[in-house]
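Self-study notes.
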Amino acid sequence: MEGAANTVAHGDTVTLHYRLSSQSGHEFESTFGGEPAIFVLGQGELAENLERWLIGLPPHETHVFQLEPDQAFGRCDPALVQRIPLGDFPAEMRVEAHTLIEFSLPNGSRLPGTVLEKTASEAVVDFNHPLCDCPVLFEVEVLAIRRSESQAPGSR
């Protein structure tokens, strides 16, 4: 049996609405007005830097965090911009400049990359998060918190 929790903790299943926007108000992503997001805190479903702002939040309150790049998606790393021969892309993959492509890694995880440039023989792909180097507003409303049985008070 899963128990309800009073505030968000690591390992909880959290149902929430969130919005990421620039400090000037440009919205990058939002679940407000649609289906809420549901995820287990600490499983990598939400950026780790954003997850830490959820710890201790109670349900049914809206919070807005003004985050500097190091508090959100970090700084861009030039080493994450790579030249990839076009022959290394799957034949069915459309490789065009200014598009986001998801790559499958050998361990089964997915890695998004933005194609910055395409030549006749290669593509320049940026694997940095698209919001690196950007200050962002992170607005969140926790709708529900479920603590797994192993985390519930009195469980072993």
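Second protein, same conventions, sequence then structure:
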Amino acid sequence: MLTTPYTRSTFWSIFLGVLLLIAGLIAIALPPIAGIAASVFFGWLLLIAGIAHLVYAWSERGAGAVIWQVLIGVVYVIAALYMLVVPVAGMVTLTLVLAFYIVVSGIFELVVFARLRRLRGAFWFLVDGLVSLLLAGLIFFHWPWSSLWFIGTLVGISLLLSGIARITVPLSLRAA
């Protein structure tokens, strides 16, 4: 068999896809653990962003700009430490923030549907908006207990879909 860069790339893409599939299935099977891992991950991201704001503050001109950047950096660092020191509470908070995001997103999707309802395919904006509001309602209704499954399941579904994409695209290119 002739080895080309495409074959090696296809192998690694499929290998990564299988790893993502396995990680996604584990996250879906154990959503609290995946949720805590996501909370810790976001905690580190917030910590890095907070430190970046604090460093950037010293490049600002004027006391007001420096103070605002320092305050923003301190808020980021406090939120990060909260998520890193108490990851379960961070996961609960993250679930609540995402539920609010889903509500706002669902409302916007319904507004888009109302404006485009005469166009073909606009129905999917309605479906997206209604499903988003239903999901957010379930999260709010069962919060804080929904935190035990929501973040981890969301991460698992994302990993699962990424794995499927990494496997199917190279296989379809190989078949063509």
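Instructor comment on the second fold: The longest helix spans residues 87-116.
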